[in-house]
Amino acid sequence: MFSFFKKKPVAPEAPATPAVAPTPAPSVAPSPELPELLPIEEPAEKKQSWMARLKAGLAKTSNNLSVLFVGAKIDDALYDELEAALLMSDAGVDATTYLLDTLKRRVKEDKLLDAAAVKAALKQLLLELLTPLERPFELGRHTPTVMMIAGVNGAGKTTTIGKLAKHMQTHGQSVLLAAGDTFRAAAREQLMVWGQRNNITVISQASGDPAAVAFDAVQSGKAKGLDVVMVDTAGRLPTQLHLMEELKKVQRVLGKGMEGAPHETLLVIDGNTGQNALAQVKAFDDALKLTGLVITKLDGTAKGGVLAAIARVRPVPVYFIGVGEKIDDLQPFVAAEFVEALLG
């Protein structure tokens, strides 16, 4: 869920003229000053709808795990089948070994005698493993909050930016987008569509330096006193070292545009890519020091265990998860909800 922290208003710095003037668009009124961190609770009916979609999205992974406990005996055969199911779900060797070893120890210590009790113990272990990944996304500590969004092509990065922007608007945040993927015309056009759809200004150039676009966006956001500036970046593979250096340059230039920026460096990863997603987290975290993850396309996949792999190997907070194409199909990650959908 979103949390906001509003400090006393500070006079904006002198306006800086952006290299490319943004298209005028109605701005969203800033949220009122809040004295402390306050969670924004979703209505009960909306929460139920989200849980239904989450369970449907994780159904394949859930079925592969849950079927093992139906009328099962607590023996080596069960553990072998569970090991295979966890590996197939892309939990990874490290997380799978940890979960099985700890589960066997708890079964012995607690004298668990039936499959339902063992399943409940596994559910508790998964909750303990994933809970450290859960962290509220905070806005309002900076004006604007500058977010740099990275990810490989095909992960759903630009679409995710549009969804997040809309999500923030519904929580009273004024948003500016920067089309920093200057290498791919379709990415700029896609972001412009999201901007028009949500009445959000988009800083864009037909060609040029992505870092310059990012810098202009920060200056514009500061001058207008906006709440959030979200910077799209070019999709690239972590093995393309020269392009990873370009990402580092964008990050450095954002820091020159505003002290402490970017305040959030997020990586969007495709939940279907399994262990490749873990490799992406490692590479981008090494290069950019990620502050959070957005995991998309969990709908219909049998690879929902990748979060366990991330938790064990590179526990970067998971801010949001997505299970479909609709705006509401991207929601804050809550470990208890995820585990309930997986083993409920």
TrEMBL record:
InterPro entries: AAA+_ATPase, P-loop_NTPase, Signal_recog_particl_SRP54_hlx, SR_rcpt_FtsY, SRP/SRP_N, SRP54_GTPase_dom, SRP54_N_sf
Composition bias type Pro residues, residue spans: 21-33
Subcellular compartments: Cell membrane; Cytoplasm
Disordered: annotated segments: 1-34
Pfam families named in the record: SRP54, SRP54_N
UniProt-listed CDD domains: FtsY
Enzyme Commission no: 3.6.5.4
Quaternary structure note: Part of the signal recognition particle protein translocation system, which is composed of SRP and FtsY. SRP is a ribonucleoprotein composed of Ffh and a 4.5S RNA molecule.
Protein name in UniProt: Signal recognition particle receptor FtsY
Protein species of origin: Duganella lactea
Gene transcribed to yield this protein: ftsY
